[in-house]
Design a protein that fits this description.
The complex is a heterodimer of chains A (about 350) and B (about 325). Chain A is an alpha/beta fold. In chain A, about 30% of the residues lie in helices and about 20% in strands. Chain A has a domain of about 240 residues: P-loop containing nucleotide triphosphate hydrolases (Rossmann fold, 3-Layer(aba) Sandwich). Chain B contains twelve helices and twelve strands. In chain B, strands 6-7-8-3-9-10-12-11 form an eight-stranded mixed β-sheet, sandwiched between helices. In chain B, strands 2-1-4-5 form a four-stranded antiparallel β-sheet, with helices on one face. In chain B, strand 7, helix 8 and strand 8 form a beta-alpha-beta unit. In chain B, helix 4 crosses helix 5, helix 4 runs parallel beside helix 7 and helix 7 packs parallel to helix 8. The chains are: A alpha/beta (about 350), B alpha/beta (about 325). Chains A and B meet through helix 6, helix 7, helix 8, helix 10 and helix 11 of A and helix 8, helix 9 and helix 11 of B.
Chain lengths: ~350, ~325
Amino acid sequence: MLAVAWRGGGVSEDDTPSSAPLLSVRDLTVHFPRVRAGWFTAPEVVRAVDGVSFDVERGTTLAIVGESGSGKTTTALAIMRLAPVTSGAIRLGRTDLGSLQGETLRQARRRLQIIFQDPFSSLNPRERAGAAVRSPLDRMNVGTPAEREERVAELFAAVGLRPEQRQLFPHQFSGGQRQRINIARALATRPELVVCDEPVSALDIAIRAQILNLLSRLQRELGLTYLFISHDMAVVEHICDQIAVMYLGQIVEQAPRREFFAAPLHPYSVALMSAVPTVHGGRTRAAQRIKLVGDPPSPIHPPPGCRFANRCPVAEPACQQTLPELRQAAPDHWVRCHRVDLIDGRPRAPLQATFT
Amino acid sequence: MDALLRVQDLQVEFNSRRGTALVLNGVDLEIHAGQTLCVVGESGCGKSMTALALLRLIPSPPGRIRAGQIMFHGEDLVSATEQRMREIRGNRISMIFQEPMTSLNPVLTVGDQIGESLRAHAAADAAGARAQAIEMLRQVGIPAPERRVDEYPHQLSGGMRQRVMIAIALACRPDILIADEPTTALDVTVQAQIFDLLRELQRDKGTAIVLITHDMGVVAEMADRVMVMYAGRVVEQGTTDQVLNRPGHPYTRGLIACLPELGSSRQARRLPLAEISGVVPSIWELGAGCAFRERCPDATPRCALEVPAMHTLDESTGHAAACWLLHGGAAA
């Protein structure tokens, strides 16, 4: 029902051929300098994101997964230009997002929006829900005031909120409804790319399914492109088309959904998947789990070799010496590991979970 | 087998300007030595309130235990003196919370905080408490415990802080450990380590564990018995196998179905997730009837009239669910 009114807005403003990726990130680094320890010492640098490249095709979802400190959220914020980009290129269609400044950057933000994890702290407690959803339109000067009100009504219907709820304040909504307001606000300017930073992690288990189904439906109806940041492998398997696994600022594996979940190659990906408790697996799965010991190394002084080597159950001395390149082990399946061998042209994972 | 702790008809009420609300309404449960009981449900269903009530930690006012019994070693904790409760808390029954950073004191060393309960309950002197604190840190798998014992919480990672919380909780070798979503704030690989640790400690010391969680996957791998709560009532109880594989209550079925399950065939085909529509009703709007009826796919007219009684599904294991459909449907 809303398709007709919406379609036009989903089309890129710069007429990119539809075959090119919508978002293209090359060698992105985000380094945060720390306070200088002394007058003559160089300031230390936290390498939060350290050489990340990927493409996201129009109308698809790329999920970036990883644990705390892996750099997944910083990557998302850098793409939104909400974290400082140290080097690298970020292109949205034909627009070089990385180099935009001032008013042109502000105008470009119409095309990319973000949904944050905590639905409450991302809403102004003194602003009514309708005004919150309208504010991007006001700021971007989109349409007449009457058209904006009409658009807000349309957005409320699209995310499953009742029209009269526009008058309520954030505290009068439940967590799931608040996230619906955030989604409506993110969609107000008809963005092409929506960055979803852990959008269901703070929600109750029964509400997660509602929001995930809503995000899927909106993508289908509006042709949205999602960059989906999450630590939850099960949610990612449900929602993504492509997946990238990050560890200590780098992508360690990247593949289409089906290929990845059928046969993950990097030992970290395998360990991460085996750590997820499942209803079906129960205690057997817990007993057969791959146990990781220790903590990730410091992002200030990452080791010279593979960053996962100190925790990797199958690391060899060579892994400590040289950093593996991200290489293509199978069509579209990229992995950063010395130990992945090709046997008869097919990649073989050095570490496998033995779930029965 | 005799229960270590038995709760009967526990009722907790909270007063506010809007009147009095029952946040726990007729909770019955048993905790057995060496076993894990998982309490599941959405926010506001009463699972944390149940945990607090067991330790008599309900903030009062505005809350209070209105009725019921909490029998522990032949003693009713509901009527125990505050002095007596202080002897029990952290000693016979202890608790770990969700967010380890906010439950640890930032200006005391890890060793002081572990030693505190030993000095209070086991009359240990300073040197003895320190030695035992180091031993506890070793048991919960913290490397270099002799050095860590003098560190402060901010110097530890999230997983290590939760290990310290567990060390504090287990220092006096309690009979019961209550863990309120102990891994929600942690990464999944760290969560796996913490659960391995809890299982190991349970095997070695025979501690009973009450684990509060909203994750059915966690239930499947940790629980011996499961209790599902909704709007302050127990809606289903039974063994883990029964509750997960043959759930009797529509809410339990919904909680299992709405979870994306890693590697399942539904996931492979990318079917939409099953939804439990709507939200948990406010405790002020419960009225008569089953609290779940507004969200229930199978609700009948009777569900709006009377609160369903527990219906026993398996006498030998105590599998029971509170749903009119089990009592012979709407015709009854």
